[in-house]
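Internal tracking record. Fields below are filled automatically when a chain is submitted to the structure queue. Please do not edit lines marked as system-generated. If the sequence contains nonstandard residues, flag them in the REMARKS field before resubmitting.
Queue: standard
Priority: normal
Entity type: single polypeptide chain
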Amino acid sequence: MPRGEYAITDGRAAVERFMSAPGPMGWRYHATRDDAGGGSTTFDVSVDRDGRPVRVRIESAAHTLTVIARGERFEGERDGELVEGPLPGPVVFGSPGSDAVLLHRLASSATVRALRVDPATLTLHEVELRCERRGDEQVATPAGMFDAARWRTGGRTIWLAGSTVVAADGVVLRAYEPGATGPVPRLKSL
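SYSTEM-GENERATED OUTPUT FOLLOWS
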């Protein structure tokens, strides 16, 4: 089971500790993000083998959101109130885990419809994202050197090795253990 720690440096200093694992259903990502102001957010997402969302749960200090897929639709709760609607594709929520879900299922550049979670209110908005694969390259991180695919989406560059984001604009992989299923770095550390 891959596990590690990201430093989030995109204007809101935070540390996100994660673990992810493939399973019989698909893939799961669980993380806790602690920001410099003392707030904490938990992300728990499960997707099927095709990368479609099955269940997403996000808990912040102010709000709670659960989204459960029901075919082409979703239902769930936000702060105890029913939420439901069409499920156009992945659920993106401002975590390297959601970047991994979004990009891992793509073989090449594509435009993807998704549900975006507003980080402050945990409300849902349907969006269209252009994901452009820019090639493969080696990426040096404090956790090691990785062979990764370089993507550009939402104005950000993201490097993905297997199903793990190893670098992104505003994201640094500080610590990492590949377990039995994660990408193995070429070198242990810089």
